[in-house]
Amino acid sequence: MASQSSALPPSAGLITSMNTDYHRAGLNVFLVIVLAHWAEHVAQAVQIYVLGWPLREARGVLGRPFPWLVTSEWMHYGYALVMLAGLLLLRRGFTGRARTWWTISLGIQVWHHLEHLLLLIQALTGNNLLGRPVPTSLIQLLVPRVELHLFYNAVVFAPMVVAMWLHRRPNRAERAAMTCRCAPAPTGAA
């Protein structure tokens, strides 16, 4: 009879590893990806609101040498998918209060992902929402795209940071439930 572990799909081992032995490394890599994306949005906002560049010229850092990145709905959707996958993949490693905050971030990212899916479908089909000249998300009907995505990234990022902060500083019950080694040993521990 085959052992239980050999009957599990390879992804189960990856998910377990990412939430135990490699949780801290996974969180660090994920945080670098998120911060790099944030840098792009902040650079674009600086280009528009501080430097006074026209919207079509304000393309962030990577968009300057690679302008197609800014206009590629595939690239934006891909990032939204990476965010969703990272939040899902690393969730099991959180406990208690940290898990609650991580789940809030995940829930907001689900909506953000759906907005990007709507944009991608419009770009692929050429049928834009309400006959708009460009792909348009639902909330974009009320808020311009640059500001909206700054907002979306902020409201996904903020609870994610709170979750990471609490995860590194668990209370006694949370520490007992942890399956990773993200939190330093409590002071006075042998």
Total number of strands: 0
Structural class: mainly alpha
Specify the number of helices: 8
> What is the radius of gyration?
20 Å
What share of the residues does DSSP label as strand, in percent? under 5%
Taking all residues together, what is the mean pLDDT? 91
User: Which stretches of 5+ consecutive residues score pLDDT under 50?
Assistant: 1-6
The gross shape turns out to be elongated
Task: State the share of residues found in helices, binned by percent.
Answer: 55-70%
Main sheet record: none
Gap between N and C termini: 42 Å
What letter string, H or E per element, gives the SSE order?
HHHHHHHH
What oligomeric state do the depicted chains represent? Answer: single chain
Describe this structure in words.
64% of the residues lie in helices and 0% in strands. With 190 residues, the chain is an all-alpha fold. The protein contains eight helices and no strands.
What characteristics describe this protein?
190 residues, mainly alpha, 64% helix, disordered N terminus
How does the SSE layout of this entry go?
Elements: H1 4-7, H2 10-18, H3 23-49, H4 68-71, H5 73-89, H6 96-125, H7 145-168, H8 172-177
Helix pairs in contact: 3-7, 5-6, 6-7
